[in-house]
Design a protein that fits this description.
The chain is an all-alpha fold. It is built from five helices and no strands.
């Protein structure tokens, strides 16, 4: 079963655009930084952070494409994206955030992004199998 590399790359780029907006100062960036305890002045190497984030997102998009299989319809793309986003990613964050005693706000922001991320990826990958 082949994977459409262009669709995977497009889903990855779309995820990056979505994440850039989601975590921007226009939307949830200020709250996220406060809840995560991140000081902008102490930012780490952006090339490393964004480079590794891109690689991880690319792997996630390829895995979702593989999971969807060849020629998924839009309903399968939406359903599978939501199952992965809610059932795997958000719930896994929920477990980790409980043990690390992170706030419900932070969980909502991070989990919300990944739910939306996998939904968008599922739609892109089902429209361009």
């Amino acid at each position: 079963m082949g994977i459409n590399l262009w669709a995977v790359l497009t889903a990855t780029v779309a995820s990056f655009v979505l994440g850039g907006l989601w975590y921007s100062k226009l939307l949830l960036g200020r709250v996220w930084r406060r809840e995560a305890g991140i000081d902008e002045a102490e930012a780490s190497n952006p090339i490393k952070v964004f480079g590794l984030a891109f690689v991880f997102t690319l792997i996630s998009a390829a895995a979702l494409s593989w999971l969807l299989g060849p020629y998924p319809n839009i309903i399968e793309g939406i359903r599978t994206g939501l199952v992965v986003g809610v059932g795997f990613v958000a719930c896994s964050f929920g477990v980790n955030y409980q043990f690390s005693q992170k706030s419900g706000k932070l969980l909502s922001i991070d989990a919300g992004f990944h739910i939306l991320q996998f939904l968008v990826m599922g739609i892109i990958l089902s429209l361009w199998p």
